[in-house]
Amino acid sequence: MPPSGLFPRRALAEGAGALGRSLPLVGGGSWTRLVHGGGGGSEAEGEEFPYADVPRPGRKWERKPYVTPMKVLIRRAKEERRARRENPCRVLERPPENGLLVPGLVGVAHQVHGAWESLLRGLTRLVEGGAVAVRRCRFCPEVHVGGVGHEIRTCEGPGSAARNALHVWRPGTARDVVGFPYCYHLFDRVGKPRVSHKEKYDVPRLPAILELCIQAGVDVERYPAKRRTRPVYSIEGRIVDFEPDDDEDDSADDTGPSLPSLAADEAGKMEEEMTVCELGARTLQSWLDMRAGAARLMGKYGVVTCGYCPEVQVGPKGHKVRMCKASKHQQRDGQHAWQEATVDDLVRPNYVWHVPATGHGGDGGAPPLANELKRYYGKAPAVVELCVRAGAPVPAQYRSMMRLDVVPPARDEHDLVA
């Protein structure tokens, strides 16, 4: 249920009797909301989707919740140990554990890579081109999409107590909108799945979403990867590869541009001719496609994250670089507490306050978001808020999170609302 004191627009217009009709409950904790189509908005189509709110950030000294329950992980480990004891020498049959690519996910990896590049191009043009202004706090990672920063007191940076937790805003860039954590590149994700502490300066680092696409079948010249044609063997838990190494490079004569590079150039030319509204819709669609494709890839290709810090590593195991500075790192000698990652760990959404369309936000002479009315404001990922401000339609899965059915009262009326 939405928090108390949040009234839908229909309830304010028709009275308290319409409150039950505007937000009926359905089975499974879902809300039935009205999504208005094009034109004058007279026709409404009912669409059911689960009610979603912004996830609450965990405490710094607490570990992230496990994606898979611990009992299931223990049962899987026992089954693997039993299978290894019964058959010490065996051929791994299932990709990608055997070193081969998953044939059905190679195309998905190329789509995710293309959506990632399209997202970066769209954000760069929208933010640096001046279509939508972005503000970032000087002392904390808070980001605001709009011409004037909000007045909500949520700053936790240095000297925040002297400023009553008010933010000090400065112009932001496209990198502040979405966060892509970096990880170590694995040339052979099966033969050498871990990076030692002594190799931390020798192994290159790259965005984790790009590393996931490379391991799933995307070839990037700057980051080569080993592609096998035969499955590997598991001898008493150790991976053994009997495939001979091919030292001859047959692709040295191929100097022409590849098809993905040509497609990226054509997409860049098309985006230059788009309007701001069309570019916002295309960028938002790239964001949704990238997250959906990354979730499919993570179902087969392992991605792990530290349970106490934002570090991410794409591969079957985490690295051994002692660089964790989060809670209880002294007990682990600086090593990370690896566990299964989620899509939000791979692509950080960076939630920001949603600016209502009427009378708030600081644009066009309207007052900025007030701290007294923060319970009436919704939130959304910064990419979604940026594209919506550019003219893109609001995705259905973010409508409840952005609280589009809530009308914030005026500053002098917030004490009168129950």
TrEMBL record:
<protein>
    <submittedName>
        <fullName>Os07g0600300 protein</fullName>
    </submittedName>
</protein>
<feature type="domain" description="APO">
    <location>
        <begin position="305"/>
        <end position="396"/>
    </location>
</feature>
<feature type="compositionally biased region" description="Acidic residues">
    <location>
        <begin position="242"/>
        <end position="253"/>
    </location>
</feature>
<feature type="region of interest" description="Disordered">
    <location>
        <begin position="239"/>
        <end position="268"/>
    </location>
</feature>
<feature type="domain" description="APO">
    <location>
        <begin position="136"/>
        <end position="222"/>
    </location>
</feature>
<dbReference type="InterPro" id="IPR023342">
    <property type="entry name" value="APO_dom"/>
</dbReference>
<dbReference type="GO" id="GO:0003723">
    <property type="term" value="F:RNA binding"/>
</dbReference>
<dbReference type="Pfam" id="PF05634">
    <property type="entry name" value="APO_RNA-bind"/>
</dbReference>
